Amino acid sequence: MKKSSFIKLTIFIGIFALMLTACSTTSNEASGAEVIEEINDDLEDKTVEIIDARGKVTVPVNPKNVVSLDSRTFETLSDWGIKLLAAPKPIMPADSPYVSDHSVLDIGNHREPNLEIIAAVEPELVIVGQRFANFYDDIKAIVPNAAVIDLDFDVSEAADTPGENLKNGLKDATITLGKIFDKNEEAERLIADFDQAIEEAKSAYNGRDTIMSLVVSGGNIGFSAPLSGRVWGPMYEIFGWVPALEVENTSSDHQGDDISVEAIAQSNPDWILVLDRDAATSSTSDAVPAQDVIDNSPALQNTNAVSQAKIIYAPDDTYTNESIQTYLELFDKIAKTLVK
After folding, report:
1. pTM of this structure
2. 254 pLDDT more than 50
3. How far apart are CA 279 and CA 137, in angstroms?
4. How many CA atoms lie less than 13 Å away from 166 in the CB half-sphere?
5. What is the per-residue pLDDT across 172-217, written as a single tens digit (0 to 9) for each?
6. Quick one: CA torsion of 95, 132, 247, 232, rounded to 10 degrees?
7. Cα–Cα distance for residue pair 114/106, rounded to 1 Å
8. What span, in angstroms and rounded, lies between the C-alpha atoms of 108 and 156?
């Protein structure tokens, strides 16, 4: 081959190789862009399947527009920095960040809620539960494109195992929220702390002392029966408490049952546990603190519990903040106090 022909051939091969490299680079760049676009699409469209009180529901992960109506979720959502567009402010703890945030619209209480506000904010997710569970179908109808989940669970005496239902219900709801808001590690830590608090409260109880649970509302003392009601009732099963008084045909009324203070005193409980309903629902000007009511009840003064100062008060916001954090605080208080 002539030298000139060889040089021309070499140049041609070099140019062809450069063309191939350029094509390959362009192709790789295009392929990389497509992969990134697919990843972004996956992130935007990522969903998770959860099981709520009504069955399986597909929910977007990290939804942007969120409404919560469930008092068992407010503190968890707030702690995790979840933005709410609307909430039932009249039945929320006064110190909840959502109550003071004017950008969070007020739906009103569960007796006469303004459901149109839910439709107006165009939510991706609506969390229903407890007081608002009866409005589930109405909410589904007004926001057909939203994921609506019902985190309610039954802790009434009719549930047969109210204690187990309370424990599992709080834990399941926490797991569900963790999946939805990509807070799985935070949810696991909460549940671990919750389980530990239960074990410590169990260990603190000697298995013999009699327990009397009360609800103070409007200055009146109401009997909160074992296994009945949302707060104290389930704990008799969880901790194996011996009730100081058992009455047939009790109810889960939020103000307690109509049992006379004299009958409560005659049962002579070793311990009295008190839920102050007014502390969660009234202003400081019109509320009568539960401790004042108990201290000023002549009938109770000679009971073992009062004379020995063996009284445990639930956190002030318990009636409107039945979150897993509230029970953690309460169980910790029980564990530290019952050992007296």
Report:
1. 0.82
2. no
3. 32
4. 29
5. 999 999 999 999 999 999 999 999 999 999 999 999 999 999 999 9
6. -30
7. 8
8. 25
Please work out, in degrees rounded to the nearest 5, the angle formed at the alpha carbon of residue 127 by the alpha carbons of 82 and 66.
40
Number of neighbouring beta carbons within 10 Å of residue 27: 10
Cα–Cα dist 170/153, whole Å: 9
Per-residue burial over 202-234, b = 16 or more CB atoms within 10 Å of its CB, e = otherwise: bebbeeebbbbbbbbbeeebbbbbbbbbbbbbb
Find the helix packing angle between 324-337 and 184-204, rounded to 10°. Answer: 30
**Range 69-78 average pLDDT:** 97
Give the pairing type, strands 147-150 and 125-128: parallel
Which residues, at least 6 apart from 117, have a Cβ–Cβ distance to it below 8 Å?
86, 105, 106, 107
Q: Per-residue pLDDT averaged across 103-122, rounded?
A: 96
Give the whole-angstrom CA distance, residue 105 versus residue 118: 9
CA-CA distance, 146 to 58, in Å (whole number)?
10
Query: What are the beta bridge partners of residue 126?
Result: 67, 148
pLDDT value, residue 286: 61
CA 265 centroid distance within chain: 35
In whole angstroms, give the CA distance from residue 218 to residue 234: 24
